[in-house]
Specification:
The chain has about 525 residues and is of the alpha+beta class. It folds into four domains: about 1-130, Uridine Diphospho-n-acetylenolpyruvylglucosamine Reductase, domain 2; about 135-245, 2-Layer Sandwich (Uridine Diphospho-n-acetylenolpyruvylglucosamine Reductase, domain 3); about 250-325 and about 355-460, 3-Layer(aba) Sandwich (Vanillyl-alcohol Oxidase, Chain A, domain 3), CATH 3.40.462.20; about 470-480 and about 490-519, no CATH class. About 30% of the residues lie in helices and about 20% in strands. The strands form five sheets. A seven-stranded antiparallel β-sheet has the order 15-12-14-13-17-18-16. A five-stranded antiparallel β-sheet has the order 5-6-10-8-9. The relative contact order is 0.11. The structure holds flavin-adenine dinucleotide (FAD) and 2-acetamido-2-deoxy-beta-D-glucopyranose (3 copies).
Length: about 525
């Protein structure tokens, strides 16, 4: 009896997986679209011939670089209103040999959620309609759908309870799906860690179209989706998060120092102080032109902040006149809009400007850069095409979590550096030349072997997947993958091999499956 059961199971498994692995290697776009039409309400499927296609495709594009039709566009955009539509799209894609890319907020720096950098036939699953946030006040938890923005998440958590919050990124229009998939750093990470350090459960549709929660997917896959980067392991539909406590009012300051006011000395000092301040205090730095702006969020009162600053960072000469007190939710709006008077409801807006072109790169600094080098760094900001850099301090709680607890491996770094250049229209040459040269110059002062980078600040220049026999290779992936994930890359590749061996979910920087026999 037991044997028969085993045989039946084996037959069933083979039927199912043979069926799926024997998909035609050539895509059948028409059959794919026909399959979608049969399984998903037609008003939720936009094909290239639909008059609304361009509007839906562009709806959450955040980078004008990928707005033109010089890049490869999807066959269709599917906008599910139910988990079953996502499952159906995956099954149609598997059987007809058409890949899917998933888009939550569309903020990917390389646009990988809705465009391909190489010729490819693919569809997009856009989760914008799946964006519920439900807070459980007694448990202080929330379920948040991937299609919600972090502005919607913050607003819903804090609007009725100013002492509840969540630690994630700064820009309110970022989508939860992609953001959490890459870890999510922000102004409260020194106190409460990354967003993914506070994820308790998740619901995901895997490459077989199954809908799984944490118990169903198992701890390896649950580990991988909390920071291993979006687009590799399946489509995460929602996340259960632990909310965190903040005081009824928090204190912020913005203090600018020019090079003549000692900016180079103060930034040099900040490298040691920023990561070792009390966890309640985060000071990030924006360097642009001949100025450094020190921007702080303190989960406490003005008087106690003044005392802490006098004691630990007197070089910044902060006084009570610099204090701006407000609720935590107001602080989120203040950081986003640079204006204290912007109402918190603005955090619910999903529109952003598409007028400025940008290109970003990232680094991590492991040991403090000397004052002499900081003077050189400031001189780069007088050059033609110069952009800005943002320094985000680590240390505190984030530094106390083991490197392999989640895929985010940069925990022991002093700080993250983000390089951003801007231009209008066709004028990108000077900006991009400056960025390339400055990034080369910084190489000697930042983390090495590998030089580390943050997956949520995606940068295709650091490497792209190599496809052999229709599967992305581990060795090709290592080039960029060890920069994003260091020693966690191999474990990510082994999870990928277990959950998506045929490499259905893939893009230019998706995790490749670890080849069998390799450990
Ligand atoms: C203005 C701006 C400010 C930012 N500020 C911060 C910050 O403060 N802190 C920080 O950490 N990051 C920040 N980021 C980076 C941001 O975290 C990443 O761009 C993030 O991946 C965006 O998520 P998204 O859902 O909006 O993007 P999308 O473009 O929708 O997705 C990004 C990637 O994840 C995949 N993906 C999307 N949804 C899912 C899903 N549901 N399941 C599986 N894979 C999925 C996509 O296919 C794509 O590969 C910022 C970005 C921008 C543009
Ligand atoms: C490409 O762009 C041009 C001009 O912006 C537009 O007229 C055309 O319809 C676009 N083509 C496609 C396939 O989107
Ligand atoms: C680079 O980062 C800035 C600041 O976070 C952001 O506004 C911009 O959209 C990013 N660039 C791209 C191409 O996404
Ligand atoms: C909130 O959580 C509690 C404790 O787990 C549970 O009993 C309750 O049903 C939840 N409330 C809602 C609205 O889900």
């Amino acid at each position: 009896m037991a044997m028969l059961k085993g045989l039946a199971l084996a037959l069933f498994v083979c039927f199912f997986s043979c069926y799926l692995t024997s998909v035609p290697s050539l895509a059948s776009p028409d059959d794919f679209l026909q399959c979608l039409r049969e399984k998903i309400p037609s008003e939720l499927v936009y094909t290239q011939s639909s008059s609304s296609f361009a509007g839906v495709l562009v709806s959450s594009i955040r980078s004008p670089r990928f707005f033109t039709n010089t890049t490869v566009r999807p066959l269709c955009v599917v906008t599910p209103t139910d988990a079953s539509h996502v499952q159906a799209a995956v099954l149609c894609g598997r059987t007809q040999g058409v890949r899917l890319r998933v888009r939550s907020g569309g903020h990917d720096y390389e646009g990988l959620s809705y465009r391909s950098a190489r010729p490819e036939v693919f569809g997009v699953v856009d989760l914008a309609n799946l964006r519920a946030v439900s807070v459980n006040q007694s448990e202080t938890t929330a379920w948040v759908d991937s299609g919600a923005t972090i502005g919607e998440l913050y607003y819903t958590i804090a609007k009725d309870n100013s002492q509840l919050a969540f630690p994630a990124g700064l820009c309110p229009t970022i989508g939860v799906g992609g953001h959490f998939s890459g870890g999510a750093i922000g102004m409260m990470m020194r106190k409460y860690g990354l967003a993914v350090d506070n994820v308790l459960d998740a619901k995901l549709v895997n490459a077989n179209g199954d809908l799984l929660d944490r118990a169903g997917m198992g701890e390896d896959l649950f580990w991988a989706i909390r920071g291993g980067g979006g687009g590799s392991f399946g489509i995460v539909l929602s996340w259960k998060v632990q909310l965190v406590q903040v005081p009824p009012t928090v204190t912020m300051f913005n203090i600018a120092k020019t090079i003549d006011q000692g900016a180079a000395d103060i930034v040099t000092r900040w490298q040691d102080v920023g990561p070792s301040l009390p966890n309640d205090l985060t000071i990030r730095v924006i360097v642009q032109g001949q100025q450094a702006l020190f921007q702080a969020l303190y989960l406490g009162t003005c008087s106690s902040l003044v005392a802490t600053m006098g004691d630990q960072f007197p070089e910044l000469t902060m006084t009570s006149a610099d204090c701006q007190s407000m609720t935590w939710l107001q602080s989120v709006a203040f950081i986003s809009f640079w204006n204290r008077d912007t109402p918190v409801e603005a955090l619910l807006s999903r529109t952003t400007s598409l007028s400025t072109y940008t290109k970003n790169k990232s680094d991590y600094v492991q040991s403090a850069i000397s004052k002499g080098v900081w003077k050189d760094i400031f001189s780069w900001f007088t050059m033609n095409g110069a952009g800005l850099i943002i320094l985000e301090p680590h240390g505190g709680f984030i530094g106390s979590v083991p490197t392999d607890a989640t895929p985010y491996p940069h925990r022991s770094m002093l700080y993250n550096v983000q390089y951003i250049v801007f231009w209008q229209g066709d004028g990108g040459a000077a900006a991009n030349t400056w960025l390339g040269n400055f990034y080369d110059f910084m190489g000697q002062y930042v983390s090495k072997n590998p030089r580390q980078a943050y997956v949520n600040y995606r940068d295709l220049d650091i490497g792209q997947n190599v496809v052999v026999d229709d599967v992305t290779t581990f060795d090709g992936g290592k080039v960029w993958g060890e920069q994003y994930f260091a020693s966690n890359f191999q474990r990510l590749a082994s999870v990928k091999a277990a959950v998506d061996p045929t490499n259905y979910f893939r893009n230019e920087q998706s995790i490749p499956p670890l080849a069998q026999g390799r450990k």
